[in-house]
TrEMBL record:
<keyword id="KW-1003">Cell membrane</keyword>
<dbReference type="GO" id="GO:0003924">
    <property type="term" value="F:GTPase activity"/>
</dbReference>
<dbReference type="InterPro" id="IPR027417">
    <property type="entry name" value="P-loop_NTPase"/>
</dbReference>
<keyword id="KW-0449">Lipoprotein</keyword>
<keyword id="KW-0342">GTP-binding</keyword>
<keyword id="KW-0636">Prenylation</keyword>
<dbReference type="Pfam" id="PF00071">
    <property type="entry name" value="Ras"/>
</dbReference>
<keyword id="KW-0813">Transport</keyword>
<comment type="similarity">
    <text>Belongs to the small GTPase superfamily. Rab family.</text>
</comment>
<dbReference type="InterPro" id="IPR050227">
    <property type="entry name" value="Rab"/>
</dbReference>
<keyword id="KW-0472">Membrane</keyword>
<dbReference type="GO" id="GO:0005886">
    <property type="term" value="C:plasma membrane"/>
</dbReference>
<keyword id="KW-0653">Protein transport</keyword>
<keyword id="KW-0547">Nucleotide-binding</keyword>
<comment type="function">
    <text>Intracellular vesicle trafficking and protein transport.</text>
</comment>
<dbReference type="InterPro" id="IPR005225">
    <property type="entry name" value="Small_GTP-bd"/>
</dbReference>
<dbReference type="GO" id="GO:0015031">
    <property type="term" value="P:protein transport"/>
</dbReference>
């Protein structure tokens, strides 16, 4: 996947949303993908936002990636950001069981409640595989969850950058392969998504939402 920060022309614009418990590494994953660096970051307050220009599948793409806060007190603030998202990345920490449990108890329910694209592509990401000795959630559990909820699946590490690029690449390729989302991405060029209310062995590909 090639990227050009100064690129101004693009074929499609896609909105991606990152969700999951506080501290699972959403912001670190986003930073690793957009600027090729790693930092231990403090929890996101409300919502953060980054843009990444990429060339993938022969298309020039503009990715608008929203990084939401995991704390419950920000939940009502972030609900509006689900609107119009073509891709949703659900992140958990393989060393913290509760972050995996909350995927079904909280985050999958929020997607059902707030997502406006019925064909949206969901990606399940098990982060922090660099801490293999502290792992409490097995890869098989992640695969089974992805099958049940119709998600793509990958395990990665924001710290070592293993599979970070592939995580976003797999998601975007699936969006490009979904006609209704491609049409949405084309329409996105005519509207300003920045306005409005706060609105492979490692990859399992299943049927999406």
């Amino acid at each position: 996947m090639n990227s050009t920060s100064s690129q101004s022309e693009f074929d499609y614009m896609f909105k991606l949303l990152m969700i999951g418990d506080s501290g699972v590494g959403k912001s670190s994953l986003l930073l690793s993908f957009t600027v090729d660096t790693f930092e231990d970051l403090t929890p996101t307050i409300g919502v953060d936002f980054k843009v990444k220009h990429v060339t993938l599948g022969g298309k020039k793409l503009k990715l608008a990636i929203w990084d939401t806060a995991g704390q419950e007190r920000f939940r009502t603030l972030t609900s509006s950001y689900y609107r119009g998202a073509q891709g949703i990345i659900m992140v958990y920490d393989v060393t913290r069981r509760e972050t995996f449990t909350n995927l079904s108890e909280i985050w999958a329910k929020e997607i059902d409640l707030y997502s406006t694209n019925q064909d949206c592509i969901k990606m399940l990401v098990g982060n922090k595989v660099d801490k293999e000795g502290d792992r409490v959630v097995s890869k098989e559990e992640g695969i089974n969850f992805a099958r049940e909820y119709g998600c793509l699946f990958i395990e990665c590490s924001a710290k070592t950058r293993i599979n970070v690029q592939q995580c976003f690449e797999e998601l975007v390729l699936k969006i490009l392969d979904t006609p209704s989302l491609l049409a949405e991405g084309s329409k996105g060029l005519k509207k300003n998504i920045f306005n409005g209310p706060p609105p492979q062995a490692d990859t399992y590909t299943g049927n999406c939402c």
